[in-house]
Amino acid sequence: MQISVNEAACEGHALCQLAAPDVFALDDDGLVQLVHEQLPEALEARAEAGARVCPVAALSIVR
Ligand code: SF4
Predict the structure, then answer these.
(1) Is the beta carbon of 54 within 6 A of some atom in ligand 1?
(2) Can you give the CATH number for the domain in which 20 is found?
(3) Which residues form the signal peptide (predicted)?
(4) Which residue's C-alpha comes closest to atom 8 of ligand 1?
(5) pTM of the complete model beyond 0.90
(6) Is any ligand 1 atom within 6 A of the Cβ of residue 13?
(7) How does residue 7 score in pLDDT terms, banded at 50, 70 and 90?
(8) Is the CB of 15 under 6 A from ligand 1?
């Protein structure tokens, strides 16, 4: 499983980071970045939870 990030859509709401801080972080510009280049299997459920809460649908799960 991978997470696809639409950087142009991200508005820095940080809800993804709040839901899954071990998966999502914010960079110096306040936009989302992935903590892991390759998502560990153990974090998949949390990654999905974080992607779901993004209010602008900037995160999507790729299987
Ligand atoms: S919740 Fe969405 S808009 Fe907010 S930082 Fe995460 S990806 Fe960006």
Answers:
(1) yes
(2) 3.30.70.20
(3) none
(4) 10
(5) yes
(6) yes
(7) very high
(8) yes
